[in-house]
Design goal:
It contains 17 helices and 15 strands. It is of the alpha/beta class and 505 residues long. Strand 6 and strand 7 form a beta hairpin. The longest helix has 40 residues. Helix content is 51%, strand content 15%. Helix 4 runs parallel beside helix 7 and helix 7 runs antiparallel to helix 8.
C-alpha cells in the first residue's frame, strides 16, 4: 500500500481529521514540519507539510489574504497536503486557512494536540518503507515468474505476456520494420496510438543505436526500448505506462535482457538458415529445383509459381542484416511469394506476375537491383545471369531497378561501352585518329557521321557542311588508313562497333 493521505487518516491512533473535500488518495513522498511564513525553499514536489500556525498573527484571526498567499505558495511548489496542529498557538484551525485550501484544492487535515508531529512523520515513513519492501518483493517474484515464462516453447511471447500481467498494462514488440509483431493483450490499444507507436519505433530503428524513449499520446504514455546491440537492432519493446518506479524498471530490465537473448538466438538460427538458403540457391542455379522445392516447402513454404523472375540486389554490408530480417518477415507473412538467398549478391526469386517485393526493397533501402526476364526453374541459372548483368548496368546510375529486357531491346552493340572492348576499339581506330591529330584533318568525325547517316554521302556531307565529293574523298582516305574495304557490311559493322565502344571518339 503506497503512502497516501488516506493511509494517515486511517491510522486511528493518530486521530487526524480531514477538513476539506480534496482527494485523500494523493501520494505523500515525505512529511516536513515548519512554521516559516514561506517554507517552500525547503520543500519538494509530492511532499506534505505540518504547521502549528505560528507564522500567522496569534492575537487576531488569520486574514483571508494572508491565508490565500500562504496556500498559493505551497500549491505552486507542488506540496500535496497540509496538516494543521491545534491547541499549540490557537484553538482549532483558522477558517481563512480552511477556505484558502478549499479554493486551491489543497487537502487540509487537522492534527490534535495529543498527536505529535513526529508521530505523523514516523507513520508516513513506516508506510513508505513497507511499500518499498513490498515493491522489492513484488519485483523479485515478477522476475522469477518472467524467467520461468522464458523457458516455455514460445519463450519470447510468454515473457512479454507475463510482463503485461505483472505490470497490468499493454506490452508490445515491434519487429525490425517497426510494425507491431506481438502484443499482450491483443488489440489492447487504439489504432491511432498503434500508428504513432509504429512510426516512432521505425524512427528509433533507423537510428541504429540503442535508445530508450518516453512517448506521450492523447490517452496516455508509452516507454520504448530498443532491443539488440548498436549497429544491429532486433526490435523495440513498447510498454503502455508513462513512468515506472524502481521496482518496475528492474522488472523491465530483466525482460529486456531475456528478450535480447531470445532474439540473439533467433539471429544465430537465421545465420544457419542463411547458409541453407545459399546452398539451395546454388542447386537452383545448376538446375535441381525438385530438392529445393521440397526443402523450401518444409521450412518456409512453397517456391513462387512459374514463370519466375530473379532479382540481383547490391546491399551494403552494414544493411545486410536489416534487409535479411525484413525479408524473413515477408516470407513468414506471405509464403510462396518469394525466395531469397545471399551469395555474391542478394538474390530474390519472385513470381513474374508480381515483382513488387523487389520494388519495395529497393525503394525502402535505396538499393541498386537488376531484374531478369521471366523463366521457368529449369532456366534459373540463365535468369540469375541476366539479373547480374542488369545489376551491373544499374550500378552505373542512381539506385533503382534495371530490367534485363530493357538491355536486350537496346541491342548487342549498345553494350560494348560497358565492356572491356574500349582498348581494342581505340587500337582499331588509331590509324585514323592519329592521322587527324598529326595532320589536322577531320577523318574520324566524317567516318562516324557517314555511318550514322546509313553510309549515304549526300546526307553525311549535309550534316558536316561540306561537298559530297569532299565527304567521299575523306571516307576513301580513312579506308586506306584502316586498310579495310568500307564497301563491305562486315567492315562497316566493325568500325561502328569501335565507335560504340568509344562514344567519346
Amino acid at each position: 500500500m503506497p503512502a497516501t493521505l488516506r493511509s494517515l487518516l486511517d491510522r486511528r491512533d493518530l486521530r487526524l481529521r480531514m477538513l476539506t473535500d480534496a482527494d485523500p488518495d494523493v501520494a505523500i513522498t515525505w512529511l516536513h514540519s515548519s512554521d516559516l511564513p514561506d517554507p517552500t525553499p525547503f520543500l519538494g514536489t509530492g511532499q506534505a507539510l505540518l504547521t502549528t500556525g505560528t507564522q500567522f498573527d496569534s492575537d487576531a484571526e488569520v486574514s483571508t489574504e494572508a491565508a490565500d498567499t500562504y496556500v498559493r505558495r505551497l500549491t505552486d511548489r507542488g506540496v500535496v497536503a497540509l496538516g494543521f496542529g491545534t491547541e499549540v498557538v490557537r484553538a482549532g484551525t483558522p477558517d481563512a486557512l480552511v477556505e484558502a485550501c478549499r479554493a486551491h484544492g489543497l487537502p487540509l487535515f487537522e492534527v490534535p494536540y495529543e498527536t505529535s508531529f513526529i508521530a505523523v512523520v514516523q507513520a508516513n515513513a513506516e508506510t513508505i518503507a513497507r511499500d518499498a519492501n513490498a515493491r522489492s518483493a513484488w519485483a523479485l517474484a515478477a522476475q522469477r515468474a518472467i524467467s520461468l515464462a522464458a523457458l516455455r516453447p514460445d519463450g519470447l511471447g510468454a515473457t512479454l505476456a507475463e510482463l503485461s500481467r505483472q505490470l497490468d498494462c499493454w506490452v508490445g514488440l515491434l519487429d525490425v520494420s517497426g510494425r507491431i509483431d506481438r502484443e499482450f493483450p491483443a488489440d489492447g490499444i487504439p489504432s491511432d496510438e498503434r500508428e504513432q507507436l509504429e512510426a516512432e519505433g521505425a524512427r528509433l530503428l533507423r537510428g541504429g543505436q540503442r535508445a530508450s524513449l518516453p512517448m506521450s499520446t492523447a490517452t496516455g504514455g508509452f516507454t520504448l526500448q530498443t532491443l539488440g546491440s548498436g549497429g544491429h537492432l532486433d526490435g523495440v519493446l513498447a510498454i503502455a505506462t508513462g513512468s515506472l518506479d524502481q521496482a518496475g524498471r528492474e522488472v523491465v530490465t530483466a525482460v529486456i535482457a531475456l528478450a535480447g537473448l531470445a532474439l540473439q538466438q533467433n539471429r544465430e538460427l537465421a545465420r544457419a538458415r542463411g547458409l541453407l538458403r545459399t546452398g539451395l540457391l546454388t542447386m537452383l542455379s545448376f538446375g535441381d529445383p525438385e530438392v529445393v522445392e521440397t526443402t523450401s516447402r518444409e521450412l518456409w513454404g512453397p517456391l513462387p509459381t512459374e514463370p519466375i523472375r530473379v532479382a540481383a540486389i547490391d546491399v551494403p554490408d552494414h544493411q545486410t542484416d536489416s534487409v535479411v530480417d525484413l525479408l524473413e518477415l515477408w516470407v513468414q507473412e506471405s509464403p510462396g511469394q518469394l525466395f531469397f538467398a545471399v551469395d555474391d549478391a542478394l538474390f530474390l526469386c519472385v513470381s513474374a506476375e508480381d515483382p513488387r517485393p523487389v520494388e519495395r526493397l529497393t525503394t525502402q533501402y535505396g538499393l541498386h537491383a537488376g531484374l531478369s526476364d521471366g523463366a521457368g526453374y529449369g532456366y534459373f541459372g540463365r535468369a540469375r545471369a541476366e539479373a547480374v548483368q542488369a545489376l551491373d548496368r544499374s550500378r552505373e546510375g542512381r539506385p533503382g531497378i534495371v530490367e534485363f529486357g530493357d538491355l536486350a531491346r537496346d541491342g548487342v552493340l549498345a553494350h560494348l561501352a560497358h565492356t572491356d572492348a574500349a582498348d581494342i576499339a581505340r587500337a582499331f581506330l588509331a590509324p585514323v585518329t592519329e592521322h587527324d591529330a598529326a595532320a589536322g584533318t577531320d577523318l574520324t568525325r566524317t567516318l562516324r557521321t557517314w555511318l550514322e547517316q546509313n553510309c549515304e554521302y549526300d546526307r553525311a556531307a549535309q550534316v558536316l557542311g561540306v561537298h559530297r565529293h569532299t565527304a567521299r574523298a575523306r571516307i576513301e582516305h580513312a579506308a586506306r588508313l584502316l586498310d579495310r574495304d568500307l564497301g563491305l557490311f562486315a567492315t562497316r559493322a566493325d568500325v561502328w562497333a569501335a565507335f560504340v565502344a568509344l562514344p567519346a571518339a
